Amino acid sequence: MAIKAAMVSLGCPKNQVDAEMMMATLRNDGIQLVSEEADFDVVIINTCGFIQSAKEEAIQEILDWANLKKEGRCKGIVVTGCLAERYQQELAELIPEIECVLGLGSNQFISKAVRKAAQGQKWSSYGKKTDLDINAPRVLSTLPYFAYLKISEGCDNCCTYCAIPQIRGRFRSRTIESIVAEAKWLYKQGVRELVLVAQDTTRYGMDLYGHYALAELLRELCKIDFIWIRTLYCYPDKITDELIEVLKTEPKLVKYLDIPVQHCSDHILHDMNRPDSENALVELIEKLRREIPSIILRTTLITGFPGETEEDFAKLTDFVKKAEFDHLGCFAYSEEEKTKAAMMENQVDEEVRQHRADVIMELQYDIMMKKQEARIGQTVQVVVEGYDKYGACYFGRSTFDAPDIDGKIFFDCPHKLAVGDFVAVTITEVCDYDLVGQVFTIE
Question: Which of 88, 116, 183, 267 has fewest C-beta within 10 Å?
């Protein structure tokens, strides 16, 4: 009888792609994949280890499954992902219910780990690390109409607060040919919205081709019959004129950019090892909106970075008010061990960090509500994501909302719709972070 395994994946879309590649390996090796609600032999917990809150979530998930294992819910536990890469020995020692901890470079051994775990046997992958294969087959776990496409692995930015280069290694681009081949395969699976991800999508190609090649890659992807192509994690200092021109002129590219700026104070950016400046950020935002008036801009910010003064924070609040990002996430600085920022003097009190993040999010809420209200009366293309039986209406996203990150549009339709349909919806109301509308025509 085939071993049955369930995958629980935490963290970002890049981690989700890793989980999908591991599931493909398991299926190809004769291991049956089932949902976590079904009966199974082994649970695989694919963890995130980026910041403290993510680590805490991952540890709690592991402990919950350890308790379920004691109750006979499964025979074995395998832990993978960023937390496993970062704390392999510690996890194995501190949580004895785990049969195997696989770091990122050991994902190729997932089938062996699952077979050992199904028999209740401990197994170590230490010393067996190889580079992560970013061209591996996948078992898609997203809704059928969209998928993430990882175009590179690792990061060379070495921001002082971030442990990702330690966890995932140096930046490695895939070839344009391999990415396009996977994109064509995704299209054949029914994918109509392609979402490009990487630690830094705008660095794409520098290691392979000697220049930023994201614009070139996007042109090739636009030759495939996707309806929407979206790009996340675009670092502001690498957004070239060529990239702006491609985004402006290619109709399949949604007019949406995710630009993690993190801060605007020049000395904080310098201490973060970010090559930006406040003036450069302001000029980029103005240029993007001048060249592409309908563009939607998302960003992330960090408050309470070591040395952040009241003056720095005041600059940040003014920047948020003036920039008026369409979507914004703000996080209190998290001290990550073995990073340069964790060893800096002038650490900001944790309560102050969080209070400042709360202030930013309150400012952003007012900005967002103003933008939401301005959309009333607009007719936008929406992809159907499901039916809300309690609200007795459909829900989905427009081009100005990324999957699993931004808001939704709830709407009525006299016709029966299926998940993945694209329809025209006229916005009639604002409901906090979401919108309400009515189908205008079936496309």
Answer: 267
Task: Judge contact between 233 and 201, C-beta under 8 A.
Answer: yes
Q: What is the torsional sign of CA 84, 88, 93, 94?
A: negative
Mean of pLDDT over the chain = 93
Instruction: Give the Cβ contact number of residue 170 at 10 Å.
Output: 11
Assigned token pair, 169: 């290694």
Residues 6+ apart with CB under 8 A from 431: 410
pLDDT-based confidence at residue 443 (cuts at 50, 70, 90): very low
Q: What is the mean pLDDT of residues 355-365?
A: 97
DSSP bridge partners of 412? 438
DSSP states along 93-120: HH-TT-SEE--GGGGGGHHHHHHHHHTT
Please report which confidence band the pLDDT of residue 126 belongs to, taking 50, 70 and 90 as the band edges.
Answer: low
Q: Among residues 56, 117, 145, 129, which one has the least CA distance to residue 88? A: 129
DSSP 84: H
What SS3 state is found at 381? strand
- Mapped onto helix, strand or coil, the DSSP state of residue 15 is helix
pTM for the model stands at 0.93
Question: 424 — phi, psi (to 5°)?
Answer: -95, 125
* 422-431 and 434-442 beta bridge pairing: antiparallel
Report the alpha-carbon distance of residue 21 to residue 7 in Å, rounded.
11
pLDDT for 23 equals 95
Non-local (6+) Cβ contacts of 338 within 8 A are 163, 166
Give the Cα separation of 287 and 378 in Å (integer). Answer: 24
